[in-house]
Design goal:
Blueprint lengths: L5 H6 L4 E6 L10 H10 L11 H13 L3 E8 L5 H16 L2 E6 L12 E5 L3 E7 L5 E9 L2 H17 L1 E2 L9
Parallel strand pairs: 1-2, 2-3
Antiparallel strand pairs: 1-4, 3-7, 4-5, 5-6
Helix pairs in contact: 3-4
Length: 177
């Protein structure tokens, strides 16, 4: 299948790049230090030169400058986990890069047909599914790509329905436990 990097895929995207996140916990290595510091202090590190941001922000800014609408939606359980509190606290960096981000409480997603995994959908043509372990780290086969029309249609419909119901980041208040 396609062996291009995500950066290469995004560089070949012309209209839309949408991302649906549905987990309440991610434990990916590039966030470990910042997440631990947030848990200890309650203060997010919003320095765009740290962690994974120096790689991510230019990709987003370049795509948005070329006219790509980048939208990210997150389905979350409430009250939210510590990880989601952290993710919400660092989302201003996603917004600064040019993404539009919304949050959907899980209870408002019960009647939406959702794929079993988080995904990126690029130009309604290619889906990149993300596979995680039960503890939230990348699975050995962490990414799967497809252009199958059925998968593309499911992901498109799921994302658009979630997006329509979701709350813009600026208006979403985290309900902590």
């Amino acid at each position: 299948m396609n062996t291009a990097t995500f950066a290469e895929l995004l560089a070949d995207t012309h209209h839309t790049a949408v991302h649906l996140e549905m987990r309440d916990l991610y434990a990916v290595g590039d966030e470990t230090d910042d997440y631990a510091a947030f848990l200890a202090t309650g203060v997010p590190n919003l320095d765009p030169t740290r962690s994974f941001w120096p790689q991510w922000m230019p990709l987003v800014k370049y795509a948005v400058a070329r006219g790509v609408a980048m939208r990210r939606a997150r389905i979350v359980s409430e009250p939210v986990t510590d990880y989601i509190r952290y993710e919400h606290a660092i989302t201003p960096l996603n917004l600064q890069a040019g993404e539009d981000v919304r949050w959907l409480p899980r209870r408002r997603a019960s009647d939406i047909a959702l794929p079993g995994n988080d995904f990126w959908l690029l130009d309604d043509r290619l889906v990149q599914f993300h596979h995680f372990t039960g503890t939230g780290d990348w699975a050995t086969d962490g990414k799967e790509r497809t252009t199958d029309p059925t998968a593309v249609a499911l992901c498109h419909a799921a994302f658009e329905t979630v997006w329509e119901r979701a709350i813009p980041h600026e208006k979403y208040t985290v309900q902590a436990h």
